[in-house]
Amino acid sequence: MIHPIPAFSDNYIWILTDKDSSLAWVVDPGDANPVLDYLAENQLTLAGILITHHHFDHTAGVKKLKQAFDCHVAGPSHLDKLVDQGLEDGDTISIFNYVFHVIATPGHTLDHLCYFAKNENKSPILFSGDTLFRGGCGRLFEGTAEQMHQSLQKLSDLPEETLVYCTHEYTLANYSFAVSLDKNNQKLQENLQKCQDLRDNNQPTLPTKISIEQEVNPFLRPHIEQISNSAARQLDQEISNSLVGRFAQIRAAKDSF
User: Which residue range(s) make up the domain with 167?
Assistant: First the structure.
């Protein structure tokens, strides 16, 4: 089972629990306190922590949780003072009945990793950190537009039924921007209404699915003329001749939206 633990103003710390034990793993614990509260309320023991990248809102709670439970910590290999198991692109890590494949997705940060696992009886799952959001993608703090474009293409190529668990509740803001580029997209309008209803009831808009993102996320669709033209117009620029250039224009348009 995968459950969101809200943190800060818009983070989710994902917790994985095991039906055969009282053990749990968490993904990107930027704050230890809500995790400790959830574990205590549900009589769970923390077995491990999975990190997608080094930003404090994904890692600040790791040391406190490690001190409390002496749990296993896995994440980008350069975080050698924080992790017990350094991970690189192509590695695997087993958590309960999942075998997660490590996918390097530089762009938001240079060290960003995503974690993908198939499941025999259920949909595949992806922990996408700050690379792929519902309706959006992470800002380019360290990487290039070309790196992020390639990273998103890797994720877009995953099975369409893959459930995507990202780390922020940015969906409504992302959809507001997406509509500005792609107002005639009926699937986008339907998803916007669905997510507005969820947020009105204080429910998370996650997980999303790869199939949904392929239909409505402008950062996976720079090849769509309407989207790229609209982004270029917002920037008062000529549309780029390359897909990477068009992606960069979409990202720049969102940054100033």
Answer: 2-171+205-216
In a domain, 108, yes or no: yes
Of all residues in the chain, what percent carry a pLDDT higher than 90?
98
Backbone angles phi, psi at 138, to 5 degrees: -75, 155
Q: Are 216 and 187 in contact (CB under 8 A)?
A: yes
Structure confidence at residue 120 (pLDDT): 74
pLDDT reading at 44 higher than 80: yes
The answer to pTM > 0.90 is yes
Q: Specify if 184 maps to a domain.
A: no
The encoded tokens of residue 160 equal 């369409």
Query: Residue 185: CB partners within 8 Å, gap ≥ 6?
Result: 178, 179, 215, 216
Q: Which residue has the tokens 């939206």?
A: 257
Sign of CA dihedral 42, 22, 161, 225: positive
Residue 91 lies in a domain: yes
